Amino acid sequence: MGCGSFIFLDRNFELDKCTIASSIAYYKESDNNYQLLLFPEGTDRGARAVAQSDAFARENGLPQYDYVLHPRTTGFNYLLDVMRKSQYISYVYDITIAYADTIIDSEMRLLKEGVFPKNVHFDVKKYDIGEIPTDPEKSATWLKELWLTKERRLKKFYEADTHKRRLDPSGEGYLWPVKTQGFGYYLAFGFWIMVTTMWLHSIYSYYIIRLYVVVVSLFYLYVLRRYNGIEFLVMKWFAARRKPSMGAGEPPVMAAGQTICVRLRGWAFCFFTLISALLGSIYIITPLLPLIVLRPKLWRKCMDRLIGIWVVMPGSLMSYVFGAKVRVRGDMIDHSKPAVIIMNHRTRLDWLYFWNALYKMDPWLCTSEKITLKGILKYLPGAVLKKYEIERQRSYWTWMTK
Questions:
Q1: From CA 298, how far away is CA 304, in angstroms rounded?
Q2: Under the cellular component aspect of Gene Ontology, which terms does the record hold (predicted)?
């Protein structure tokens, strides 16, 4: 994800302002239009986050929510301000995610139980950037009212019978077909499983390959320590070459105790997702590093395409192996226009289901969508398995807290 130039945030507003501004400037100067996914709530709706959101509501005389967290407006306002000044935003897409039957709230639960929800619903509502107030207070009010509406929509969704749960489509009301298989899924599934197995065999069989893996791993560790990640090294080289510019309730969380055969699927999913990300960085991306210096814009396009191909793989596994269905309706997302995507954050796997939704809407969106992530995730290979126990010990509030 670092090679994909996703944005990792450190929960320090002064540092993160520089990260956001640098990233937006880089996106614009690279002549690519991206859609940046932001979770205004700052974290997923876990028990600790709910308690803190409720405390925040009580202290500020706000209603307590049952299905979302209160959004943090400072980061949202700053991001929009930077993108407006850079003339790098056309739309804001409001995404609502809802789970009809089962909630898998973390990667560790997926790893332990090997189960996916069977039906995940997305609704897309498009706003022209001109519809959003430029005044920070009015913009914050707009976001809060949007989240109040989202709470009411989710309440209606979860109060319906499980088999009748649907999100009323927004805007133009597109309804994408629901299918768990297709050529793109088969291709991604077959390609990444095959090359991951090949890479593992070559590491086991050849000393020179093992040496190569060690050298490349040390290189990425050095870049992480020296430049705070490959994405900042790329920005540094690029900047040096460019001209300056600017139900009754929710379904229950999946309980423990699945059979070993079921859990094996979760183990296999996590293994191939993590290993393909790690070895893909070593075998495919590393030989392309000279492009950072020689052809930085070509580097950016290559990385977008490669990352886009990779993110289809978890979705293909989710659909092909687990039979999970993603239901998408509402407005179209235009991959040719820069935009911000805001979405409620129910579980730590929302991003995974959203990749599947993007593929259904328009496969090119998989190459143009970027995500804002917690900074510590860059220390994990592929940023796939997020921190788990550490997360429980630290505050969920991010630098977006006003």
A1: 10
A2: endoplasmic reticulum
Does residue 398 lie within any of the structural domains?
Answer: no
Q: How far apart are the first and last CA of the chain?
A: 28
What token pair was written down for 394? 């630290």
CB 271 within 8 A of CB 111: no
Structural domain includes residue 385: no
Domain of 138 in residue numbering reads as: 7-235+249-379
- For residue 141 the two structure tokens come to 């009010």
- Per-residue tens of pLDDT for the chain, all 402 residues: 777 888 888 777 788 888 899 899 989 988 889 999 999 998 888 888 999 999 999 999 999 999 999 998 998 999 999 999 999 999 999 999 999 888 887 778 887 788 888 889 999 999 999 999 999 999 999 999 999 999 999 999 999 988 889 988 888 888 887 776 677 778 887 888 888 899 899 999 999 999 999 998 898 888 888 888 888 888 877 777 655 444 456 666 655 556 666 677 777 778 878 788 778 888 888 888 888 888 888 888 888 888 888 888 777 777 777 777 888 888 888 888 888 888 888 887 787 788 888 887 888 888 888 887 776 666 555 443 333 333 333 333 334 444
**Alpha-carbon distance 374 to 16, whole Å?**
11
- The tally of domains found in the chain comes to 1
Compute the distance between CA of residue 314 and CA of residue 384 in angstroms, rounded to an integer: 10
